[in-house]
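Incident log, structure service

09:12 report received: a user says their structure output differs between two submissions of the same chain.
09:20 pulled the input from the user's history:
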Amino acid sequence: MKLRRILSLDGGGIRGLVTCRWLGAVDSSLAAAGKAHIPGSFDLIAGSSTGGLIACGLALGHPPDALADLYRTRRHDIFPGMARRLWSRATRLLSDGPSAPRYDGRGLEAVLADVFGDARLGDCRVPTLVPSYDVISRKPVMFKSFKPEHADLRVRDVCRATTAAPTYFPAHPLRVEGRDCALIDGGVVANNPTACAIAEALRKDETVTGTRDLVVVSVGSGERTRPIDLRSAREWGALEWAIPIIDVLFDGNAESVDYIAQHIVGDAYFRLQAALTTGLDDLDDVSDTNIAALETLAQSYSRLPATQQALAALARQL
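09:34 re-ran on a clean worker, output below:
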C-alpha cells in the first residue's frame, strides 16, 4: 500500500461547513483536470473532530456538497438551542452535577446514526485515519480503517469519539483493541492531523521512501483571529480559561503542524485556510447569520486568484 497522496482535514465544529465548501472547490479542480473525484484521487484521508466526520463521509462515498448540506440541515440537532440545552441540563443535574458539558450528545449521535448507519470503519473506500484521545490510559487512539483491529468498529462510534470536544460533549465510551476507553476530541491530539498522516505514509513498512514522494492537501475550517488581551491572559484562572483554552490549544496545534508540513513537504504541500473575522469563530454558532457568513467566507476564498492557481497546481500534481 503506497500512501503518497494525502488529504488532511482540521477540526472546527460547525465550521466544518467551510471545510466542505473548500473540498467542493478541490473536487471541481480535479474534475476540470480529468482526475478522479474525491476520494479517488487520494491514497489516505485523515481528519480530526469535525474533520474526522467529513473524512469518514468522503471515504464512504459522500460528496463534499452532500456533507455541506448535512451541516446546514442538521446543525440544530447537533448543537441544540438554549431552550433544549436548559432542559437537557436540568435532566442531567442529578447524574452529571451542575458543571455538565454544554450538550448531552444525543443530537450528534442521532445525526451520525442517520448518516452512517451500521457502516464499519473497514468499509471506507480509501485508507482513513481519525485521531481521538483516551482519558483513561492518557494516550492517543489513532483509528485506522486499514488496521484489522479497527475494521469492525462502527463509523458512527469513531466519529462520536473524535468530535467529543471537552466542555461541549461528553466523552464517548468505546472498547478498542480489548480495552475500555473514554474517548474525547481528536483535536487535543492533532486538530490538524497532517503530521499524523505524513508519519503514517512514511512508516518503515510502506513504499514511500521520503517526503519528496508526497503530495499533501491540508484543509482548514477558518483561522481564529480573536485576540485575548494581556490583562485577561494574566488574570484569568481555571473558570475563565475553561472554554478559551480549548480554542487556544486547538489553534496552536494546527498552526505548528502547518509549519512542520510546509518545511518537510515543500512545494507539494497545499494548505487551504483563511482568517475568520470575530464572531465567526465559535464551534457551535448555528445561527442563520453565522451560517450565511461562513458560506460567504468559503466562497470568497475559493474564488481568489491565488486559491484558483493553487488548486490548478494541485490537480496537476495529483
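09:41 both user submissions now match this output. Likely a transient worker issue. Closing.
09:42 reviewer note: The longest strand covers residues 128-134. Strands lie at 5-9, 44-47, 128-134, 139-144, 172-176, 179-184, 215-219, 269-272.
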